[in-house]
Amino acid sequence: MEALALWVGGRAPDAVRLIKESLVEHPRDMVLMQRLYYIYFWQGRSAEMLELTQSVRHALGGDGFMLGYHAFALEENRRFDEALPLAERAIAMNPRDAWAVHTVAHVLYERGENARGVDLLPLRIDPCDHLGYFKNHLLWHLALMHLAEGRYDHVGRLFESVFGDIPITVGSDLQDSVALAWRLDLYGRPDPQRWKRLGAAARSWLEMPLLLFHDLHVGMALAAAGDWSAAETQLDRLRERGKKSRHPTLPEVVVPLMEGLHAFAREDYHDAVAKIAPIDERIIEVGAATPSARSSTTRYWRPPCARGGGARPTASRAAPRQAPESRPALGRGARVMDWPKIGEEAVELTRGYLRVNTTNPPGGETAGTRFLAQVLDGAGVASETAESAPGRGNLVARVRGDGSLGGIVLHHHIDVVYADERYWTVDPFGGLLRDGYCTGAAPST
After folding, report:
1. Per-residue pLDDT tens for 317-368?
2. Is residue 333 part of a domain?
3. 427 and 381 in one domain?
4. pLDDT at 289
5. Cα separation, 132 vs 377, whole angstroms
6. pLDDT greater than 70 at residue 40
7. Which of 31, 65, 82, 317 measures 20 to 30 Å from 325, CA to CA?
8. Which pLDDT score, from 0 to 100, does residue 125 have?
9. 68-90: per-residue pLDDT in tens?
10. Pair (127, 16) in one structural domain
């Protein structure tokens, strides 16, 4: 209660300190642990989430819910190989452990294993019939995977089945519905009536500012609905709050991000980039988990994904991934390259690619193109997949330069030769990292 009083009184650091001190004395206090866990979650502090679960896990033994919490903390720190089996273990103990299911959704999406997620997630979500809004959030994750697979019309129907008839009175439902509706617009599936309804729901939060992450989605809904009077009122209030806030994220990140999203909704892409590009790397500060904050929020604004620009799939060719002009490969301005971070990302991408089995015969290269297309899409690079036969895909992507130099072609084949597991000491498609080496059957350049 003391910690709650501190938190409500605006003394968040003191509240966090008190909770941490209490957990040292009472590490089995699951409720207290959970409160601090979600504070870190909504502040985007993934390292602290993992530190927290590691600090109390010994006292809670094999508690299934604790396994789920720890698995998600591992995922948020990109330790996917540890997170997934731990989450599955928690689900085996309790199939209704929704947070463990949430972990599975995150891991598969971050790995680019969307086809697998489309098959697996419904089976994991179905037992969670005790949930309210959080079941909608799990279905939102399923929709993201369908979207990554190019099933745009299916996602539109999924949106209507999940969010179409419910009153949007819970913050999570507003965030998820706005995030999915915005994406559907980007992929050429706009619906003015959808935004009319979401804009009306968002107006009810004008007098009740909540988390910064939530406030951004309120503003997005108002702007997309064309309710500029309410949108500008909310933005002005954010600016005023920013002047009084002791936390720099509000004035330095949220305000310019909202200004940029307004510009994007007005189709002023130049101004959107000017507002958002300088704070792109700080967007994670607004909180929530990685697919919401790190990998999706930036996709909300990158031009020229104007509404109506999505391509439709054909029988012989997969849908082009609609993406904006790519960002400069060497960063913006004089920003120094973060080589350790780039190295870690390269290792994880390599391991993810190794897990895609494209043994030839029969080939199945389209599975590889799906993985590569998602990686490119996350970097803002458009790509297109064409199939010479079912499952035999080729991917093409282009990053345009300024014309001052000649072009460079990066080319490799996606299929791999047969790997006889009798002669392997590890799974050739496991993406194993051992002794500093990634091991697997890999395509060559």
Report:
1. 233 333 333 333 323 333 456 777 788 888 888 888 888 888 888 888 888 8
2. no
3. yes
4. 56
5. 32
6. yes
7. 317
8. 93
9. 999 999 999 999 999 999 999 99
10. yes
**SS3 sequence, 214-265?**
HHHHHHHHHHHCCCHHHHHHHHHHHHHHHHHCCCCHHHHHHHHHHHHHHHHH
Taking only the tens place, the pLDDT of each residue in 132-172 is 889 999 999 999 999 999 899 999 999 999 998 888 888 88
What's the Rg (C-alpha) of the chain? 22
Q: Which of 134-143, 277-286, 391-400, 431-440 has the highest mean pLDDT?
A: 134-143
Please state, in angstroms and rounded to a whole number, the distance separating the CA atoms of residues 242 and 262. Answer: 18
pLDDT (tens digit, 9 = 90+) per residue, 293-328? 443 344 454 433 333 333 332 322 233 333 333 333
Spell out the SS3 assignment of the chain.
CHHHHHHHCCCHHHHHHHHHHHHHHCCCCHHHHHHHHHHHHHCCCHHHHHHHHHHHHHHHCCCHHHHHHHHHHHHHCCCHHHHHHHHHHHHHHCCCCHHHHHHHHHHHHHHCCHHHHHHHHHHHHCCCCCCCHHHHHHHHHHHHHHHHCCCHHHHHHHHHHHHCCCCCCCHHHHHHHHHHHHHHHHCCCCCHHHHHHHHHHHHCCCCCCCCHHHHHHHHHHHHHCCCHHHHHHHHHHHHHHHHHCCCCHHHHHHHHHHHHHHHHHCCCHHHHHHHHHHHHHHHHHHCCCHHHHCCCHHHHCCCCCCCCCCCCCCCCECCCECCCCCCCCCCCCCCCCCHHHHHHHHHHHHHHHHCCCCECCCCCHHHHHHHHHHHHHHCCCCEEEEEEECCEEEEEECCCCCCCCCCCCCCCCCCECCCCHHHCCCCCCCCEEECCEEECCCCCC
Q: Which two tokens stand for residue 55?
A: 């600090």
- Residue with token string 């892409």: 269
Q: Say which residue the tokens 């130049």 belong to.
A: 270
In a domain, residue 331? The reply is no
Per the prediction, the chain carries an average pLDDT of 83
CATH classification at residue 372: 3.40.630.10
pTM over 0.70: no
Do 155 and 270 have their domain in common?
yes
DSSP 146-168: HHHTT-HHHHHHHHHHHHSSS--
Domain count, the chain: 3
